[in-house]
Amino acid sequence: MKLLWENLGPTDKGVGMKKVLQFFIILFTIFTFFGCFRAKNFEERVNRIVKELKKELSLNDEQTNKLESIRLEIIAKQKSIKANLEIENIKNEVLSMIKSEQIDKEKFKKTIEPLAKSRQEMIDFVITKMIEFHRVLTPEQRNKLAELMEKFDKKMEKNVGD
Known about the structure:
The protein has one domain (about 5-160). The chain has seven helices and no strands. It has helices spanning about 5-10, 15-35, 40-55, 60-85, 85-100, 105-135, 140-160.
């Protein structure tokens, strides 16, 4: 029985192990991405963030309305992207490749390409919406938002580790 790294690359196990690690990172990303497109989880996450921002930034009525509008647009965009993806087909193809003797790197990349494109589309959309929200914040609120982001980043570093 061949070891996984023998199927993925050169006989130099150091290089092969790097490829194994890259493979599992890609795999983790794919399954995380599938999870992000479950509307309920995504919607809950967006709602939780909006609730926290309203509380922490002491938003006025105009800012609250803008944030609510953005929340609805982001959720709608995610649903639209999800509707246009054939997630089950992609997932089944990936699982089929994983069960096979060897994985064709180009076929794997081509299979997950729609996920990468839709992810980038969503990232671009959220950045645009964040810029819109940023425009209605006061300098104090922007500083508070930066503090919240730093706090979140530290929390994530602690949970993920070095």
